[in-house]
Amino acid sequence: MVPDLMNTAIRETEYVFGQHRSGLLRYIKYHLNDVSEAEDVAQESFIRFYQTRLKGEEILKPKAWLFRVAHNLLIDLGRKKKPELLDEKEWLTAEALLVVVPTGLEPELTTLPWDRLTRLELECLRLRTEGLKLREISEVLEISISTVVSYISRALTKLRPATEEKFETFDDQRVAATL
Questions:
Q1: What is the mean pLDDT of the chain?
Q2: I need a labelling partner for 166 at 20 to 30 A (CA). Which of 27, 94, 98, 176 fits?
């Protein structure tokens, strides 16, 4: 083992860990009932990152690569423990999509019609809110970029009537507070 390669792999893994751990862990937690198991999946994702870099293989998009590995690990875990994965109703909670919204609006998210979204529509939105680019989402879910765009567009169309009403109410309250 070449010491320089090992040192590089360690430094890169530490850097990527610092940059993406919280987002990756948040993504995994939304798919599992068990926080400890989610941490194990995240840890395994970073171990695989380190092992890949230790072999000298280049990872051009570390964030997308980590989310892809975690996604695959979740699928493998689902095959082994299908009943323990979240069912569709649990999946479609307001916490399944952390969007950047004005302060004070978070309670309003719980009343949005999440059940109208398909699993993939919600998954595309979820990954987008984690900061992944459309290309990265397509790599993680192994679908085309145009399909990602389509899923996000359909999801937003389904949520738009409820969100327009919520944001309008929020804006009215904010204006009233400034008077």
A1: 78
A2: 27
pLDDT in tens, 61-89: 999 999 999 999 998 888 776 544 444 44
pTM for this entry: 0.59
* The amino acid at 34: D
Number of other residues whose CB lies within 10 A of the CB of residue 118: 13
Contacts of 32 (CB under 8 A, 6+ apart): 38, 41, 74, 77, 84, 85, 86
Best CATH choice for the domain 87-179 from the list 3.30.70.2190, 2.60.120.280, 3.40.50.300, 1.10.10.10: 1.10.10.10
Phi, psi of 151 (to 5 degrees): -65, -45
Q: Facing residues of 85 across strands? A: 32
The answer to whether 122 and 92 have CB atoms below 8 angstroms apart is: yes
Q: Phi then psi for 49, rounded to 5 degrees?
A: -60, -50
